[in-house]
Structure to design on (290 residues):
């Protein structure tokens, strides 16, 4: 990917932690030390327990983070284009607390922590901007997950009816999963129902992926293989959640993982539709008009 200095200045002008800095400082101090890394869907970018030496800014794509706490609870978070991750390493020399993987094909700008800390030490504006960012993140991650309802809207339509109908149905299944989580908190013996729910949602998602991939193949979409990889990544993650739930005997813990899976699937689906599937929608429309 060709990225010019002008692209970087414009881009960083919208990134938390960088947007409050004078443009000339960004251009003279930050851009010369920036690196660019490319990650495939499913590829690990940082692993829990690694020594921190890089700060990442997502230029294109999105990532999925997972933190396992000392008491073995899992927490999931998602970071999208135009945002920073790995920033806590800026203030503590502790090992990475989370594993972060690319959810789609992802381009990251990278900053070497040592060099960056050196800049921070010499300029209080950098330090202030990053301390604010780190504080906000810490608060966001402490907020308890509420089960959200996701409403279908025209902005999700990619213009291929068969695909739109299936997307709508997956979103409805995600909402049904949310309702199930809320009701399951009040009842007993939910374990087998959780497994049935996951199997159903996974089967339908896999059917959808298959149908969508077939349409792409027929249309000779050049990115088919990459798109297949992204679909497979979701299926693998859902299987990961399912296996994790199967290992647990406490129903409260199972529901906690299911809540994380609910949030994960909704985030994944909405962003996947609006970025990657929408690209196919445009491609398909172009084919029809030529
Ligand atoms: Fe897709
Ligand atoms: Fe899709």
């Amino acid at each position: 990917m060709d990225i010019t200095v002008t692209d970087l200045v414009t881009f960083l002008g919208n990134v938390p932690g960088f947007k409050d800095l004078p443009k000339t400082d960004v251009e003279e101090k930050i851009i010369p030390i920036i690196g660019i890394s490319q990650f495939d869907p499913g590829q690990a970018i940082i692993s829990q327990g690694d020594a921190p030496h890089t700060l990442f800014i997502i230029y294109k794509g999105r990532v999925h983070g997972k933190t396992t706490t000392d008491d073995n609870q899992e927490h999931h978070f998602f970071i999208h284009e135009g945002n920073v991750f790995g920033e806590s390493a800026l203030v503590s020399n502790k090992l990475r607390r989370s594993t972060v993987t690319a959810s789609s094909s992802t381009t990251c700008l990278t900053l070497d922590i040592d060099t960056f800390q050196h800049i921070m030490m010499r300029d209080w504006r950098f330090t202030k901007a990053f301390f604010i960012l780190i504080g906000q993140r810490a608060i966001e991650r402490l907020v308890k997950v509420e089960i959200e309802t996701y409403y279908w809207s025209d902005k999700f339509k990619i213009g291929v009816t068969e695909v739109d109908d299936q997307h709508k149905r997956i979103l409805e299944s995600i909402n049904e999963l949310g309702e199930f989580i809320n009701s399951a908190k009040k009842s007993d013996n939910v374990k087998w129902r959780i497994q049935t729910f996951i199997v159903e949602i996974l089967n339908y998602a896999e059917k959808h992926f298959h149908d969508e991939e077939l349409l792409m193949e027929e249309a000779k979409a050049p990115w088919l293989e990459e798109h297949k990889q992204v679909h497979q990544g979701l299926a693998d993650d859902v299987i990961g959640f399912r296996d994790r739930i199967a290992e647990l005997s406490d129903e409260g813990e199972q529901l906690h993982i299911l809540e994380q899976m609910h949030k994960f699937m909704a985030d994944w689906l909405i962003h996947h539709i609006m970025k990657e599937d929408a690209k196919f929608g445009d491609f398909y429309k172009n084919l029809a008009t030529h």
